[in-house]
Amino acid sequence: MREKIMNRKMKKTGLILITMFAAALLFTACKQASKSMTMVKKELYGNYKGKDVYLLTLTNKDGNVLKLTSFGARITWIEVPDRNGKKENVTFGYDTFDSMVKGDPYFGAIVGRYANRIAKGKFSLGGNDYSLTLNNGPNSLHGGPGGWHSVVWDCIADSGAKYPTVRFRYHSPDMEEGYPGNVDAEVVYTWTDQNEVIIDYNCVSDKKTVLNVTNHAYFNLHGAGNGNILDHELVIKASRFVAVDSTLIPTGELRKVEGTPFDFTKPHTVGERINDAYDQLKLGIGYDHTFVLENTELIDATVYDPSTGRLMEVMTDQPGVQFYCGNFLDGKQTGHGGKPYVYRSGLCLETGHFPDSPNHPDFPETVLRPGETFASRTIYRFSVRQ
Ligand code: GAL
After folding, report:
1. Which region holds residue 300: left if phi is over 0, alpha if psi is between -120 and 50, else beta?
2. Would the CB of 290 count as within 6 Å of ligand 1?
């Protein structure tokens, strides 16, 4: 009898424990789900060619904000503190959808199918010759005028993720802008509590094609629209860069940075040597070149603004990074808060492959075959130095 009671008591205690455990699990799961759901706010932003466009606001644990839009799967706002805790947006963008559509096509956008230039818009693959739309002098730039920066992507906030996460998807039809193959692209942005923008790319194709994707965010660590970036200190872990001709097409030479104004293996401000009488600076009208990444360390490039203490670190698995310092900005674009984006007021570190690789068999290959998945990750991490 006593045993029975004891058994019953134990059973009861067991039941209570199991119920408590289940309740705790449920509570944690709900908390996690509601946390990630509230951390991503999705609002209707506009309509483009009959498709609704959304604005997605991702807020992390410290209340820092990343804003994305499904038009071009763009980053339009990154709000991070300086060394005194003052928060400011450090990337180029526009206040309204209309101004974004009329504005610069690339601010913060995902660029594809082929980021950067393809000479004369021509390449051959599998015995076929392909011709792309020319939109940059004699060349094709950034996937052509109707590239991935200018289309509406499907988007979903990933409510099960640890950090605020948004998935963008786009089906790029066969021969879009002249490129072969139906390509299904997914770009996933994650905004971590460590102020990292993680960008994951996944692309598949049903035919042999070429692919080079990037994000084209412009950064100014003073805050977007606050002066130029010539005082930003830059490090790029690259001992060579891709030399170009006057139309910014690679000559084929991978030139050593040593002893040139392209040596950023140690910190240098962007402006320090930008006016040096050096052929590649003349041809690029400043820095507008792909650096050949060593990919040996976790961090591939850093940008530091001594005045605010803001630091941006760039990590990628890609073989190159295009360092462009806003040489074509002229103040005609007025962005957030009506601020003009003047000459050299923003810099880009576009991770990816080298320009015109389909015409340079000795460059790392950019061919995507059916059955393969192009999978790649780039991270922009923000912090401060005191
Ligand atoms: C960059 C490119 C520049 C310019 C810019 C868009 O990726 O390197 O030459 O075309 O995009 O304005």
Report:
1. alpha
2. no
Residues linked to residue 377 through DSSP beta bridges, in sequence order: 200
Contact status, residue 104 vs residue 123, Cβ threshold 8 Å: no
**Ligand 1 center from residue 83 Cα (angstroms):** 31
Q: How many angstroms separate the alpha carbon of residue 39 from the centre of ligand 1?
A: 33
Q: CA nearest 245: which of 157, 367, 355, 124?
A: 355
Question: pLDDT of 351-386, one tens digit each?
Answer: 999 999 999 999 999 999 999 999 999 999 999 999
CA 138 – CA 121 distance, rounded (Å): 8
Helices (H) and strands (E) in the chain — how many of each?
A: 3, 27
Is residue 367 within 8 Å of residue 125, measured between CB atoms?
yes
CA of 382 to the centre of ligand 1 (A): 23
**What tokens appear for 353 in the block?**
């492959």
pLDDT tens digit sequence for 20-43: 555 554 444 444 444 444 599 999
Neighbours of 85 (CB within 10 A): 8
Q: Which of 142, 149, 216, 360 is catalytic?
A: 216
